[in-house]
Amino acid sequence: MAALNQNFDVARALLEHGADVDVTFLKVLHGMRGEETCAVTMLVEILAEHTMRTLESLRFLFRKLKGGPNERPSFIVDQNSKISILHVLAGGELFTEIAQITPSILNLSLDTYSENSCISCRH
Length: 123
Prior knowledge:
Structural class: alpha+beta
Strand order of the largest sheet: 1-2
Shape: globular
Radius of gyration: 14 Å
Strand content: 15-25%
Oligomer: single chain
Largest sheet: 2 strands, antiparallel
Number of strands: 4
Order of helices and strands: HEEHHEEHHHH
Number of helices: 7
Number of domains: 1
């Protein structure tokens, strides 16, 4: 929540004291099969909005801002369904509605997770 709300000082302190950037929580998602309850990481929550705040939160988490996590968050945001950050971005309804920020979010994500195994990840 600290990273989501851009309270980076609190986020940094939590991380320094062992907070897990990949901790999962239950979230109801609306998918092709209707509503599903999934265990997802905080990246799903951050990616739910496509704003400049989203971009700054991701920069912090991807260590593009000073004091970000020592390790980047997991590429897979839903371990059970093997949904990746790119799946979330590709399926996002906001992609066309807020097109001015989404390419920046996508480019930052592709830059951070540029390995072939990530780009070619299947679901």
